[in-house]
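Journal club prep — side note

Before the paper discussion, L.F. wants everyone to see what a predicted structure for a comparable chain looks like in token form. Sequence:
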Amino acid sequence: IGRDDLLARAWLNRAFAEYERERLQPAEEALSRALELFGKRGDRQGEADGLEVLGRIIEGLRGKLSKAQIAYRKAFDLYRALGDGQGMARTMARLGRCVLTGGGLRDARQILVEALPLARQHHERISETNSLMGLAVLAHLTGDAPEAIRLHQEAIAMMQELGDPAGLAGIRRHLGMHYLRQGRLDEAEREMQSARAVYREHVQAEPVFILRSLAEVYLAKGDLLTAADYAEQALAGVDAADDISKATHEATLGKVRAVQGRGEEAEALFQRSLEILEGSEYRIDLAITLMKYGEALLLLDQPQRARPLLERARTLFAEMEATQFVSEIGTRLEMVAT
């Protein structure tokens, strides 16, 4: 019927549907068709919406972070030209989180510090929460524990007001991981179990990303049987197409296997994890996996093999200016030396 405007929106909706099914390539293909039609029609609003969705899809389905960042930046420029403050707030918050995920801490901080007041100005509360969470993770990575806890709690309060149980579970899980790094294990366990309960009640699925974090908490508490159970469940539940999640879950199980004294299994898990992460843009996940591998080798009484892994992890964290982890690894290296 010659309605390219309706066809473009149909392709955009198709992209959303593929995203919900966690199918990255079909989602990108549908968005490409939508963006082509929006461009032909000179529909800048549609193009901006499509680019924003493209960034979300690539990031959510663990595609190339640089590609998602380009999409967000183009969408932001279009929204600014259109005078769409809410669109600007959404894309700036998402861009900041995306840059942070790739390990660009300094750039992410600059973006998120600008994104937070922009979201408040335009009453974009979900984007405000995204910005708060990005700043909370930055505080965690750079060793500002009081600020990390304050920002997490502010984000939790906002998510409760917004009624987003999945988002609330994710923030509680992040706070639990912060408590874990601080050695506050009972508080870490409380936040993780609360996150799991909220997710299971409202989403009616087992959250594998929370199970993985629970495994790390119980490993730190010395409850090896529970840690192994959660780590195994988490890895078994990862989507086969999500290589990055598979890599991080394998690293957690690898650490558990090392504590169990099952060295060959631990080595195989870490090797597979690093094969995936070495070729990715997920620098924080790579550095954390190198750190865990080094710690696992220490547990297996192989300090000479552990040292270069820990040193490389410390170098990566230092390049990112993640001072909390630089300090932690420095302490471990001192132990290796003595």
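L.F.'s comment for the group: The mean pLDDT is 94. Keep this in mind when we get to the figures.
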